[in-house]
Design brief:
16 helices; globular; 6-stranded parallel sheet; single chain; 4-stranded antiparallel sheet
Length: 500
Amino acid sequence: MPSIYPFKYITHVCYGEVLFLAPIGLIAYLSYQTSFGRPDIEESGVIAELPIIVVFLTATKSNSLITFILGIPFERLVTWHKLWGYLAVATAGMHMWCAYAIEGRRRLFMEEDERFLSGDSHDSINDDDHSDSHFGGSPTFYSMNGPSPNYLKFLSENEENYTGSIALIAMIALVVPSIFAIFRRWFFELWYIPHVISAMLALIFAIIHGAGTVVVVLIWWGIDLATRYILMAGFLYPHKASLRTLPGEIVEISFPKPDNFEYDAGQFVMIALPKLGFASFHPFTVSSAPHQDTVTMHIKVLGNWTKRLEKLARKGESEVSILMEGPYSKLAVDINDHRRYKMIMLISGGIGVTPMYSIGNDLVHQIEHNERDIKKLKFVWCIRSMDLLDSMMDASSKHFGNETIFDVDDNDVINLDIYLTQKAKDIEINKPSPVKIGRPDFCKIFNDMLDAAIKENEGAVAVLACGPEPMVDSVRDACRRWSSICGGVKFDFHEETFEL
């Protein structure tokens, strides 16, 4: 069911994001005013610097100031990073147009004054033309108001102009390919490498152009790259991992958990395999729980890189060299708040189960070791075929927590439901089993959780979702709807995303 709200993300924007987004309208307004309302080249240039700074601050992962100050995790910054990128191109474009429109007039005034003071009148413009010349009337000037405007001449006339032009072109090259998510997903290397090169060109030529403040951002960005690629990937983390294929077009990457690698359930890492390219770092959720001795990732074969990964695994490469950085991510709902969240729902679709699988096993581990008082843990997973279920069962030795996945009985605390949404006629489900035929009824699921929360006198339910967009939209809408029902129970929502 599609979202019934036209602005489906609005109610799930945190306070830090509101503070982060608030200046966008003001900067756009000031850029317009300094470029068109009361044109001033220097002021419009200063305004154009600000979005560039924010864009590159949000491009860092390991030491992002935005994440530290506002508490916004890297993956939630991706959408806003793109929005600030659009603003950076718009303000830089307005700044360039401002220069093109009025610089000709400024130079013409200066030249006329010099001719007047020197007494040189052989080039002077006659009185009939004088008034028009103040608006760029001379064909030798590139003002937009002249009879022969020459925009190409303006773009390349001097160092200041051509460095600004290259910076803007590089920024456009950054933004345009990023608009289309399918391009990043299927041709990641063709997007990522030019993206980094364009970013470096934009920064360097912006600095030469006169945007001196950007130097600080360039240094900070360099520190971030060194931290991730040299310190994490080069020295701290393991360089060998096991590789194997599983049913349902799944590739498993695993390695023994080292003492210096700490992560929270639901976090992701960036992985590169030198055999597939040193620069090709891709984000994958850690599907194992933090208490387990082996770190595991389950990767669905979708794009070009994952197809090459599967081909490598099928060649019998049981052990491969890896480069890894991270971990990253922070749940928008703090399920570690033991006092607020004693009722938790984990909802996933397809390979979106990986973060929920990690979180679920971590919570079950806490329950079994009396580390956490949880009154209800509801796990919902939608799959299209049994292959994916077989892969995850194989990964955990047919266990969810410490119980065989097909033998989990409904009880007062842990409830596991798996919905087989396709190919049901060809599948026989052995009983007892948490596998159900069909699609989940979220109205019933949320209503049952609401009743349970009221019965237990709990005022909040944490709802975490990861999977196809229509399913996540349905869960988001259900959280809104059931939070508004009388009873005082709030369904706090978090969604995992893979669009990085």
